[in-house]
Amino acid sequence: MLLGTAAHCQLPEPGKRAIAVSLIPEMSVVAPGETVALALMMRPAPGWHGYWKNPGDSGMETQIAWDLPAGLAAGPIRYPLPGRLIVAGLMNYVYERDYALLVDVKVPATLPAGTKLPIRARVDYLACTKELCVPETANVAVDLETGAATVAQTKRAMFDPFRQALPQPLGSEARFERIGSRFRMAIPVPADLTLREPYFYPLTDGVVPYAAPQIFSRAGDTLIVETEALSNGSGFGVVDGVLKLNEGTSVTLRATPGTVPAGGKPVKLAIQHSASGASAMLPALLGAVLGGLLLNIMPCVFPILSLKALSLAKASGDESAAKKEAIAYTAGAVLICLALGAALLALRAGGTAAGWAFQLQDPRIILLLLLLITAVALNLAGLFELPAVTLGGRLAERRGLAGAFWTGALAAFVATPCTGPFMGAALGAALVLPAPAALAIFAGLGLGLALPFLLLGFVPALRRRLPKAGAWMEQFRRLISVPMFLTALALAWILGRQAGVDGMALGLTAAMVLGLALWWVGRSQGRGAAWVPLAPAVLIALEVMLLLPVAAAGSAQAPLQGALKTEPFSEGRLAALQQEGRPVFAYFTADWCVTCKVNERGALQRQQVAKAFAARQVAVLVGDWTRGDPAIGRFLEKHGRSGVPLYLYYAPGKPAEILPQVLTPSRLVSMLS
C-alpha cells in the first residue's frame, strides 16, 4: 500500500467517500431460476482511483461480503479492463474514472412469483491518490422480486456498455516459457487484427515484475510477449491474465507451459499502425464487393435485378440513358449500404452490441419489409403500375433516373438478411477498422450488389446479349412475382417468430389492406386521384406498427425442432462442455437470415449429420440472434464477425475451427474426423 501525508492532496469531506459506491440491478423483477446481473458502480472523486482484481505492486482487491436471501448465490466479481499508473517506480492497475464491477446472482427456481428479495452487501475497497490511500467501506442494498420482467423493468441500455468493457474469453489456449531471466508467451491472435498499444495484465501473481517493459512481436497468427521474469517465478502450471488488444478490446487468457516461437515482426506504436490497417482493409473491401455481387442471386434481389436488366433491353440502344440509369441504380444501392453501415457504427459507438442486419431484430422493420415486398410482388403480378420498378419507364427522363435510384436502394435494403461467402469476414473487419475505412467497406458491399447492372449499363456487348424486347417480357414479369410473394410469406413467418401469432395476424391484416388499396389504384390507373386510397392504408400500417408486440432484445424463444439435439448457447455452457472433454459444435443463426435457414434445412438437419454427431457425442449449442442479444453480439465480434451465420467446431483440446458460411452435410461429417 502507498503511504504518505495529506499535505499534497485533499482528503474526502467528512461524511463523504473518496469513491462513491452504489448497487444497481439490471432488472428489478427476475424470473425464478434465472440470473440477474448487479453492477457495483464505483465513482472516484477527482484525483482518486480504485484498483483492479490484481492491483499490481500496491493496492488492494475489492472485497464484497453478501447478505442474500436463502437460496440465492452470488458469483465472482467481473472487472473491466483497468488502466496503468506508475507511482515511485511501482506499477498500479487502477481505475481513475467511473467504473462498474459486475456480479451475477442466481435466483432459485423454487421461489414463487412475487417473492421479495432484499439484497445487502458490505463492500471493502481502497481509494488512493498519488500521495496517500484511504481504506473505505460502503454498505449497499437493493430490493428485487420474482416474476416476469417487462422491458420497462430492465436497464439493458445501461448494462450493455458495462459488459462491453469486460474482457472476453480468448477461446484458444496460450503457451509460456521461461528462458533464463526472460518470460515469453505465445498468444493466438489473427495476423490481420490491428493492435494499438497492446499490454498484458497478469492475474497470476509472482510471475513477472509488473513495472518491467513488455516487448510484442508477431509471427503469423501468433502474438509473442516478452518481458522480465521474477527470480522466484518458476514452477507455475498456468499463467492467467488479460491482454489488451486496442482501445476497448481485451481478452482473458490462460497460458500453459509450452514452446514459444522465436520473435517475429515487432509491434510498433499505434501511430505507426496505419499501414497494417490499410493492408487489412484491402482484403475486406474485396470481400465486401464479392459478397455484394453474390447477393444478386438471392430470391428477393434477383427479380429486381432482372427487371432493371430487361428495362435496358427496351432502351433501344440508348447508350447515354443506359449509363445514367446504371449510375443512378448504383448510387441507390451504395447510399443505402452506407446509411446502414453508419447507423451500425453509431450504435456500436454508443455501447450497443449491434451487427449487420441489426434493423431486422425489430419486428416493426420486418412489418415494413413485409408491406414493401407485398407491394412489389403485386406490382410485378400486374395489379398496378409503380414507376420505380415498371418496365415501361423512360431511362433518359428524370422519372427513369429516380426509378433506378430507388430500385437500387430497394435491392440493397431487402438484401440485408443475406450474408454469404466473403461477406462475414469483410463486415467483421469493418468493426475493428477506423470509421472511414469501415464505411468504405460498406460502400464496397453496395458496389458489389450494383455491379451486374453497372456492367450492363457501361458495356454494350453485354447488353446486346440480353434477349430482344417482346411480349414474352410481360409473362416473365408475372413469373418473377412468385419469388417475391414467397419472400413476403417468409417475412410473415419471421414476424410471427418475433411478435407471436397476434403480431403475425396484425401484419397480414396490414398487408391485406395494402393489397386492396393497390387493387383500387390499379382499377383507377391514369386518373389524378388514383393513389388516394393508399392514404388510409398507410395510416392503418402505422397503427399496426404501434400495436405490434415488441419483445425485449435477447429474449429467448422456443427453438425449432430438428434432427440435431441442441441447447441454447452461452459461454459458460461452452466452457463447461470443453472441460468435460466433449466436442462442441456452436452455430449462430437468426430467423431473418436467409443463408442460415438454407444451411439449417440443407445441411444441419440432415439425418446423416445427426447420426455422425450422436456417434461422437458432439454437443450442439445454438445462439439465436433473431431479436438481438448483446452477449452473442460480442461473441460474434470476438470471432471477427458482425452478423450471422457463424459456425464453430471445438475439437477436444483444440482451438475453435471456423467453418464456411455455406455448409454441406459432407463437410459437417468430415469435420469430425
Automatic annotation (TrEMBL):
- TM region(s), chain numbering: 280-305, 326-345, 365-384, 405-431, 437-459, 479-497, 503-522, 529-552
* Residue ranges constituting the Thioredoxin domain according to the UniProt record: 545-673
GO BP term, pick one? cell redox homeostasis
Q: Provide the alphabetized UniProt keywords.
A: Cell membrane, Cytochrome c-type biogenesis, Membrane, Transmembrane, Transmembrane helix
Q: Which InterPro entries match?
A: Cyt_c_assmbl_TM_dom (IPR003834), DsbD_gamma (IPR035671), DsbDN (IPR028250), Thioredoxin-like_sf (IPR036249), Thioredoxin_domain (IPR013766)
Q: Where in the cell is it found?
A: Cell membrane
Q: What GO molecular function annotation could you give as one example from this UniProt entry?
A: protein-disulfide reductase activity
State the GO CC annotations. plasma membrane
Annotated membrane topology:
Multi-pass membrane protein
The family database entries (PROSITE patterns) matched by this protein are listed as: THIOREDOXIN_2
Give the protein name, as stated in the record.
Thiol:disulfide interchange protein
